[in-house]
Write a structure and sequence with these properties.
By secondary structure, this protein is mainly alpha-helical. Helix content is about 45%, strand content about 5%. It has a two-stranded antiparallel sheet with strand order 1-8. A two-stranded antiparallel sheet has the order 2-3. A two-stranded antiparallel ribbon has the order 4-7.
């Protein structure tokens, strides 16, 4: 059978936010698009629109960071007869679950269409050399970032892929049916985008640009973020040597801008470890979102006993009981045990509205996982232990112990950020923590929307 995916090609869309003055721009013809990309501001507005799309609630503003992925990782208590229970049971045939999964898929590809539309015009000679390198580099990095998470959600379990077609790596705007790629084709295109983004952004990141658009780099697909995404990508495709190489580059080279958060930072209620953000999104109404999703009665919670189990009785860990996890007064249902990660101190004005997507901490975990030499991984473990004030005995850790440490750290560190489920899938874990459902392709591979697939002989 030949599988063809039909994509909804949205009109080019820039969303408005409460803190931005960008206008809605919906070019309906080639002439209008050429006019839009006839100025530098047109390119800037276009790229800003992509970032706005990424922080929508159906993508990283909620679904892929706090909600869907966290239910898949069994991180929240659920009700078996509600959406939360259906997701946690991996019931992808349920109409509510299907709707959420379909929305993620469609919004990803619509965002990619917008990126590709920009890239179609980026070589038209309008941009200065520095701005060209910046905008094209960020766009290519974002295209790779989106495609990687599509692969992590809807693609096969790494190591279990075949030569069958899996997903489209969309590289152009077209009203024709997009070709569906094999695993090998898909990851080759993804690597190509990352390589080009790295080369372009390296030219401008260190010397900088005297332009207001070159600000708040942690909220942009910057050079170090691209390098980190490459480490994540190589680990996903099981190239541990390259994953270790890029993780080490980020750890060694990003020190001037990014550093591991320390216990004092958590004491000061910088719960999202803002100094570690290699790439994060700014969500202006994050306080309202998290107040409803986490902190009001009816919000997500976990049992205290499971969190105690997760932290293995380590009472000094800054992420544990009465620190990042606290008992909040509930209503008729009693007290609730709640993750306080998004309750940043009001004094931290610049970080209170941030959702991290790629953090330096992950680079340490990748570097640790990808080495079996204690002389390499032990010092990195020690740094993480100090940074989170852990009291576990990890001195002279063997390979099995350090691998278990890494596995648990993805749960402890990235709780509420949507990363743990990916790790279970990447490792093809048969046992999923806190779940009675065995890990398998039926659990780890989210279904492509039925409306997007047509089978032909």
């Amino acid at each position: 059978m030949k599988r063809i995916i039909y994509y909804i090609l949205s009109s080019y869309l820039l969303l408005t936010t409460g803190c931005s003055n960008w206008l809605d721009v919906k070019p309906s013809s080639q002439v209008e698009q050429e006019e839009m990309f006839s100025t530098e501001d047109g390119f800037k507005n276009s790229l800003t629109g992509v970032y706005i799309n990424l922080k929508s609630s159906s993508l990283y503003g909620q679904t892929l960071t706090m909600e869907l992925n966290e239910y898949l990782a069994q991180h929240w208590k659920t009700n078996a007869s509600e959406l939360s229970g259906y997701i946690s049971a991996y019931d992808y045939e349920n109409s509510l679950v299907q709707s959420m999964i379909d929305k993620v898929y469609t919004d990803f590809y619509n965002t990619i269409v917008n990126i590709n539309n920009l890239l179609d015009f980026v070589d038209n000679g309008v941009l200065s050399e520095d701005m060209y390198n910046l905008i094209k580099g960020e766009a290519l990095g974002l295209r790779a970032f989106c495609h990687l998470d599509l692969l992590r959600l809807y693609g096969p379990i790494p190591g279990k892929q075949t030569d069958k077609k899996i997903l489209s790596y969309a590289r152009e705007v077209s009203r024709q049916n997009m070709p569906v790629n094999t695993w090998a084709e898909y990851v080759a295109f993804l690597e190509q985008d990352l390589n080009e983004a790295e080369a372009l952004l390296e030219k401008v990141e260190k010397k900088g640009i005297d332009d207001d658009y070159f600000t708040y780099r942690q909220n942009r697909m910057n050079y170090w973020a691209v390098m980190a995404v490459k480490a994540r990508f190589y680990l996903w495709i099981q190239n541990k040597e390259k994953a270790a190489e890029y993780a080490a580059k980020v750890i060694a080279g990003a020190g001037e801008q990014f550093k591991l958060s320390q216990p004092q930072d958590f004491t000061n209620k910088d719960y999202i470890a803002s100094s570690e953000h290699l790439f994060s999104i700014h969500v202006y109404d994050l306080e309202d979102i998290t107040e409803t999703f986490f902190y009001r009665s009816g919000g997500v919670e976990q049992t205290k006993s499971l969190i105690t189990e997760l932290f293995e009785g380590d009472v000094t860990d800054v992420r544990g009981d009465n620190k990042l996890w606290k008992q909040l007064k509930g209503s008729s249902t009693g007290d609730r045990y709640v993750l306080m990660k998004y309750k940043q101190s009001e004094a931290l004005v610049d970080t209170r509205e941030q959702i991290p997507l790629v953090r330096l901490y992950e680079m340490y975990l990748i570097a640790i996982e990808c080495s079996n030499e204690s002389s390499v991984y032990q010092p990195l473990i020690n740094q993480l232990m100090t940074a989170r004030s852990m009291s576990l005995d990890m001195s002279n850790a063997g390979v099995d112990q350090k691998n278990q440490f890494v596995s648990m750290e993805y749960h402890k560190e990235f709780y509420g950020e949507g990363q743990a489920f990916y790790q279970s899938k990447r490792r093809n874990d048969e046992t999923i923590m806190w779940s009675n459902t065995p890990g398998s392709a039926s659990v780890y591979v989210l279904p492509i929307p039925k409306s997007e697939i047509k089978y032909e002989e």
